[in-house]
């Protein structure tokens, strides 16, 4: 989707749990150290829900914050998309639960599964539906409660993830502001490198599969790292090239907040100065589909960007999926 904008961001919001899990806390749970985690990932702490808290709670809180920020009422929303891999239940979609809680009676809601790329995939889908003319007020939410599928005995993965959700309200563009370009890609060849093999139809939650922890995250960290860097460079370069822009045109670049070393490796190619590069991974860890919309909401609400700013966003996740977007706020 490139060219004149059809849909623009009217408001942003975010929600993270109150409970903080620090690297020092993790030192008491697995054989790790604050030093190792900080050096390899840049993460110092992450937010985690109380066990049993569903995604819909964070997603609804983020949605209500975005609605208030946009000055839009829940009943005006006609489309709700939740990008997530940790919805409350297999069905119904978490988007339907959020729809009900915000009073969006006439909306259509559905979830979208693209792991860490869920928010940018949702932005493209909602933007296209608004461009077609059928919808006027869309909520795009990205969020995950990845701690619900973390193996807390596995030091390779448990130090990386946190919980959170972010949201934007989209409406028709004023002709200048809005989504200037998006780029989405996936490659199922690498699905085995990062997956949650249990709980689906492949490995239903039988006692044996639960015993073997198939319901937790499996990851080949080094391979994921390598692909993440190459793919995020590809996605950012492509969306900028197609828009006839360079990183110098950006007021802010928001990369997926998975690992500071991934962000730095991607930025080796682009050399975006620190003041234009958004980083909050040290505070939240990897919140999956929540990462980009949480960062966008924080950038807007801290005044780091304002109406008219050009923001680039780029992400990578399981699938593999990767994506980028350019928006004029
Ligand atoms: N604490 C201490 N030591 C650890 C820990 C830990 N938490 N985890 C692994 N180690 C050990 C390993 O066992 C290994 O020990 P060994 O040399 O004795 O075998 C050593 O540290 C080095 O392990 P590596 O896996 O080579 O470490 P690496 O530098 O690759 O860092 C990491 C691992 C942080 C997982 C990195 O590969 C990474 O970030 N990959 C990307 C993963 C990711 O971001 N996934 C999220 C989903 S996709 C996305 O959002 C981009």
The gist of it:
The protein has 329 residues and is of the alpha/beta class.
The CATH architecture designation of the largest domain is 3-Layer(aba) Sandwich
Content of β-strand = 15-25%
Helix content: 25-40%
Q: How many structural domains are formed by the residues?
A: 2
Largest sheet strand order: 1-7-6-4-5
Give me the count of strands. 13
SS content category: alpha/beta
Judging from the principal axes of the Cα atoms, what is the shape?
globular
- Amino-to-carboxy terminus distance: 17 Å
| Secondary-structure element series | EEHHEHEHEHEHEEEHEHEHHHEE
CATH topology group of the largest domain: Peroxisomal Thiolase, Chain A, domain 1
Largest sheet: 5 strands, mixed
Give me the CATH superfamily of the largest domain.
Thiolase/Chalcone synthase
CATH class of the largest domain reads: Alpha Beta
Query: What ligands does this structure carry?
Result: acetyl coenzyme *A
Low-confidence stretches: none
Mean pLDDT score, rounded? Answer: 97
Query: How many whole angstroms does the radius of gyration measure?
Result: 19 Å
Specify the number of helices: 11
In terms of topology, how is this protein built?
Blueprint: E1 7-15, E2 20-22, H1 23-27, H2 34-41, E3 45-47, H3 55-70, E4 79-83, H4 94-102, E5 108-112, H5 118-132, E6 138-145, H6 155-158, E7 163-172, E8 178-186, E9 194-195, H7 207-211, E10 218-219, H8 221-243, E11 252-255, H9 260-270, H10 281-284, H11 291-301, E12 310-317, E13 321-328
Helix pairs in contact: 3-4, 8-9
The protein binds acetyl coenzyme *A.
Overview of the molecule:
This protein is globular. The protein has 2 domains: 6-174, 3-Layer(aba) Sandwich (Peroxisomal Thiolase, Chain A, domain 1); 180-328, 3-Layer(aba) Sandwich (Peroxisomal Thiolase, Chain A, domain 1). It has helices at residues 23-27, 34-41, 55-70, 94-102, 118-132, 155-158, 207-211, 221-243, 260-270, 281-284, 291-301; strands spanning 7-15, 20-22, 45-47, 79-83, 108-112, 138-145, 163-172, 178-186, 194-195, 218-219, 252-255, 310-317, 321-328. The two termini are 17 Å apart. It is of the alpha/beta class and 329 residues long. It is 34% helix and 23% strand. Residues 32, 36-37, 40-41, 116, 155-156, 159-160, 194, 219, 221-222, 224-225, 228, 256, 258-259, 262, 286, 316-317 line the site of acetyl coenzyme *A (ACO).
